Amino acid sequence: MNVVNDMLREVHSQFVADTSGGVADYIPELAAVDPDAFGIVVATADGYVYEVGDTGTEFTIQSVSKPFTYALALADNGEDAVGAKIDVEPSGEPFNEISLDPVTERPRNPMINAGAITSVSLVHGRSHQDKFDRIRDTYSRYAGRELTMNEQVYRSEARTGHRNRAIGHMLRSFDIVDTDPDDVVDLYFRQCSIDVTCRDLGVMAATMANNGVNPITRSRAAAPALVERVLSVMTTCGMYDGAGDWVARVGLPAKSGVGGSILAVLPGQLGIAVYSPRLDQHGNSVRGVLACRELSRRLELHFLHVGRAARSAVRADYTLHDAPSRRRRSTSEQDTLEERASRVRILELHGDMLFSAAESVVRAVGTSGTDLDAVVLDMRRVDEVSGVARTMLDDMMKGLRSDGCATALVDPNSSLGHTTSSISGSDGERVFTTVNAASQWAEELVLDRWCTGPRQPTRVTLDTHPVLEAIAEKHRAVIREAFELRHFGRGDMIAAPGDHALGLALILEGRVVIAAPDPAGRTVPVSTLGPGMSFGEMPMMQRSQFLVEVRAEAPVTIALMTMARFDSLTEADPAAKLDLLETLLESAYMQAESIIRSLRRPV
Amino acid sequence: MNVVNDMLREVHSQFVADTSGGVADYIPELAAVDPDAFGIVVATADGYVYEVGDTGTEFTIQSVSKPFTYALALADNGEDAVGAKIDVEPSGEPFNEISLDPVTERPRNPMINAGAITSVSLVHGRSHQDKFDRIRDTYSRYAGRELTMNEQVYRSEARTGHRNRAIGHMLRSFDIVDTDPDDVVDLYFRQCSIDVTCRDLGVMAATMANNGVNPITRSRAAAPALVERVLSVMTTCGMYDGAGDWVARVGLPAKSGVGGSILAVLPGQLGIAVYSPRLDQHGNSVRGVLACRELSRRLELHFLHVGRAARSAVRADYTLHDAPSRRRRSTSEQDTLEERASRVRILELHGDMLFSAAESVVRAVGTSGTDLDAVVLDMRRVDEVSGVARTMLDDMMKGLRSDGCATALVDPNSSLGHTTSSISGSDGERVFTTVNAASQWAEELVLDRWCTGPRQPTRVTLDTHPVLEAIAEKHRAVIREAFELRHFGRGDMIAAPGDHALGLALILEGRVVIAAPDPAGRTVPVSTLGPGMSFGEMPMMQRSQFLVEVRAEAPVTIALMTMARFDSLTEADPAAKLDLLETLLESAYMQAESIIRSLRRPV
Questions:
Q1: Which residues of chain B fall below pLDDT 50?
Q2: Which residue intervals define the domain STAS in the entry (chains A, B) (predicted)?
């Protein structure tokens, strides 16, 4: 049971009874197909194939080959060289017209026979066979399986294809084709005779939707820029007639073939293939056109369809007030931050950063740089960043820095291409993995600039540590006695996930980084603790293991009350221990409150 | 300083020196314009206007009027009636050709003069003046200001427009126009003579990009489906020639006019207008075409451009193991949940839900319903949901329920159109505002189905409350003495944000809801607490106020140790109080750990 299959089945049964039109019969092999065959495939840009009806029946690819060989010619020769031989304008004439554009003296586009034969002539190769092998290999890469040529159809086409030979010689006479036109037309007959199934065409379309990479085999069939160009030409010239009606009613780049197939592409999302051999007067599959229209309508696939009004790429825009770091601060530091925290703006971005999204960020920041100490862009919810968006954000940040406003990114995935740096780069840009780390950095920046009172000391003694200071005078000696000093070097692991409780650790000097393993197995920094702060309470009180790692960021001195000393205190001096626990409990709730506060951040 | 302005300025100066081409001179008023005028506007779909150069100079709209009157004709008559009069195929002929399509005997499209004059004839109105007023009002709504007609240009056009009169009479003779052709052509001269600025055209284009709503005035100028159709026709027929080249090199629906302007639209994102009167041999503005190409290339605006490969709409896919509710459980309940938690799948979705996104959700869920007790879709990070996506997700959820798998949404914004329901709807779909509420519901469901052992009691006594049970036998009487019972009715506020600390509250019976105010002023439920749980510790230990509200979900009985009793215990029995604090501290850290665990959820 899958609702997508259900929808395909409904579209299939909606049109299966339509037997209007007739199969192509200019060669007996085409006339011999089952006229009632009807298959529909929707293949997603990540490689999942939905199919209903006759999706495994083989038929010759015919004109649906044209965009693929055109892409190969573009890859072999470049856009300019191919553009000098083939125009890209809709012709308004039959696809097999033996004429060129009277002004440019070129085939009007690569989707009519004259243009397609010219594409073939531009395919590189050491020999006739080599050229055909390259064409067949390319198609096979789009389809994700080895495709083969139908000998009967080829021989029949070659025997009767005088009109295409005429086109070949006409192209030779105008020097559009500059090799033996019979060889070129022979290659064209061969490429049109390659057998495919509806499923194959669906995957080929999905490969185009996936920027030229086959989503199943992960093999690249064409460069993204070429795919974009080929899809553009399919938009205006892909259907035998009625490009305007097709764009208005279907709105997908497409190509049809007299074999009875239509291939359509929604870039970035999916490919569609329909096979039904009966053709209308233009040469397009009758049920193919109907099915494409209905799929576009029901699934809302029109490429100009907009689901919603524009939204801002800025998901939240707040200041340091709403995201204080958890670092301990002196009173004058706290006062300064209270007064100046709005001088640091943190913008949380989300979605794909294309031009419009980057524009809304640039506009939101505006000219606020001159009134700010720092701007932080939180990129964690950003998906893709386009080239122009990267340039725009980089330029905006550069502009801020030249106005004296520091800048930082929270960008653990390097979506802007800058790697995490704990120290400032030559241009002053900082990159952090967490908002808390960026907040700490921004707070230091604000304090360095504005705080004139006493700063939080870079070291405390056991007696001036806030935990000891909170203990009543009469209990302090007993508590102090229970601690012993420990030293750790830069980078030393103080506690690892799974370690048993250490006891209560008070930081006297240096900094420790608390980090937690994430599901991908990486270790993600959670916070930084410094002099006057503590750790280890949680496993100590729960008699459990460490969930996080604690590592010395710089040489660290801690005062440790071991588990044994903590336990023995209950007997030795219950009143002193009560005092200690009240202190710890208050600080535990303060931490919990700071978490609640950060969860309440505006969204 | 704004990088978008910088980019526009660069494009402007890149082409400002190009003086090739000549201004239209078929009437003296057009020949009299400043040939060097050059303005570029980019207007976003949310109404911000970037402009550089001569963006305030007035000129007549000329053929750029055609799509707007076509949209009005569609609105007045419907697509079928208009389609019976005007085709939508590129013509390949000059825009002012006095001929119809030889097969359909209709104007080939609404962007050539014959089609545009037919559009005018289809505009409703009680009188000639009323029809023109409707046209002018409509254009004004797109532009967001009252536009006026240039009398000189109108008179000059009317005096010399024999070719358009010829087209009018030809249309009348074929019964395409069925009123006085001179009146119709007069209206056409008037609409072409409406004065606009480059800025006006930019806003008109942005209105189309914004699905027909002027983003500045918020006034609707056209229905979304009509805008989509008009943009489709502009894609294939909007430029005087070279639709194929335009789609390949610019890739934006556009319309040019002999006044020297080009308007282009990127649906959902932005509108572009360029004004530069010198025209190329096709009648398109020379610098207009160059600027549009360059803007499309630099800003990556091509409508077939795909920034990235497809990504899944499923941001996280986890089970109840990773998102346990914070509700207290009996041992047998805990065992059951440990064993069965993987029978509840929670899928966190993100981004816009169009067909492809919904398809990836449907595929991820697959046929897992038969092995599951419940599926929860977390919709909080979803932006827009299209009609087809809503149907697909609804159908998928219905299918799951018919397989015996319960379903729920976390969807506070009703993005799927279902409102929050604390009780089950007739079809069994549940809608919650938080994942925690959905987790609680799913746990009860799993327990009802699988738990055979004793369930968590719906009430506890003070003696069987875990806080009392954790107290050593010898201290229990003292602690018990310090509590008094309090009762609250359903909906009663037990504590409001800002209230002073109450003391320590142990829940004996009933449930309380903890809720926090969010920045928008709404109160958002955070968790539900039941018998055996406690609250009030945080303000009690910090001597602070409540940050959250605590409300009785049903009649509630709590045992309360007031602040006074808590304080007096220090003197009365320090050992007993020490015991109590150890219990509270352990539970505080357990809560903190559960928050850390929930933050570590796979993303």
A1: 422-426, 598-603
A2: 344-416
Per the CB < 8 A criterion, the answer to whether B398 and B425 are in contact is no
Q: Quote the CA–CA distance of B156 and B510 in Å, as a whole number.
A: 85
Rounded to whole angstroms, how far apart are CA atoms B125 and A499?
83
Tell me whether A354 touches chain B (CB under 8 Å). Answer: yes
**Does residue A571 sit at the B interface (CB-CB below 8 Å)?**
no
Q: Which of A472, A473, A464 is nearest to A532 (CA)?
A: A464
> Which two structure tokens, joined as six digits, stand for B207?
């209105």
Residue range A359-392, pLDDT digits in tens: 989 989 987 878 899 999 999 888 888 888 999 9
| Least Cα separation, residue A355 to chain B (angstroms) | 6
The H or E element containing residue A100 is none
Say which of B303, B388, B519 has its CB closest to residue A300.
Answer: B388
Topology, domain A466-598: Jelly Rolls (2.60.120)
Q: Indicate the pLDDT class of residue A297, thresholds 50, 70 and 90.
A: very high
3-state secondary structure of A340: helix
Q: 3-class SS at B456?
A: coil
A472 touches chain B (CB under 8 A): no
**What residue type is A460 in one-letter code?**
V
Task: Please check whether residue A288 is in contact with residue A261, taking contact to mean a CB–CB distance below 8 angstroms.
Answer: yes
Closest A-chain CA to B207: A309
- Tell me the residues of chain A between 86 and 115 that have a Cβ less than 8 Å away from chain B: 87-92, 109
Of B4, B92, B589, the CB nearest to A542: B589
Residue contact A248–B229, C-beta within 8 A: yes
List all residues 6 or more positions away from A301 whose beta carbon is below 8 Å from its beta carbon.
A251, A252, A266, A269, A270, A295, B355
Mean pLDDT of the A545-566 span: 91
Q: Name the pTM for this structure.
A: 0.79
Chain B residues with CB inside 8 Å of A351's CB? 351, 383
Assess contact for B198 and B261: CB atoms under 8 A: yes
Q: Which CATH superfamily is domain A3-299 in?
A: DD-peptidase/beta-lactamase superfamily (3.40.710.10)
User: Quick check: do B3-299 and B309-450 share a fold?
Assistant: no
Hey, is the C-beta of B247 within 8 angstroms of any chain A C-beta? yes
Interface of B with A in 217-236 (CB under 8 A): 224, 228-229, 231-233, 235-236
Q: What percent of chain A has pLDDT over 70?
A: 92
Which of A2, A213, A524 to mutate to test binding with chain B, by most B CBs within 10 Å of its CB? A2
Rounded Cα distance between A514 and A551, Å, is 7
Dihedral (CA of B60, B61, B66, B68) sign: negative
Flag whether pLDDT at A94 surpasses 70.
Answer: yes
* B4 touches A at CB < 8 Å: yes
Residue in A closest to B362 by C-alpha: A2
What pLDDT does B518 receive? 62
Binding residues of B for substrate are 63, 113, 157, 164, 188, 240, 258
- The string of DSSP codes covering A184-217 is HHHHHHHHHTBEE-HHHHHHHHHHHHTTTB-TTT
Give the distance from residue A107's alpha carbon to the nearest chain B alpha carbon, in angstroms.
13
Q: Do B592 and A542 touch (CB under 8 A)?
A: no
**8 A C-beta contact, residue B271 and residue B208:** yes
Spans of all domains in chain B: 3-299, 309-450, 466-598
Q: Do A243 and B352 lie within an 8 Å CB cutoff? A: no
Q: Which DSSP symbol is given to A177? A: S
> Options 3.30.750.24, 2.60.40.10, 3.40.47.10, 2.60.40.1880; which CATH number does A309-450 get?
3.30.750.24
Q: Give the span between the Cα atoms of B343 and B372, in whole angstroms.
A: 4
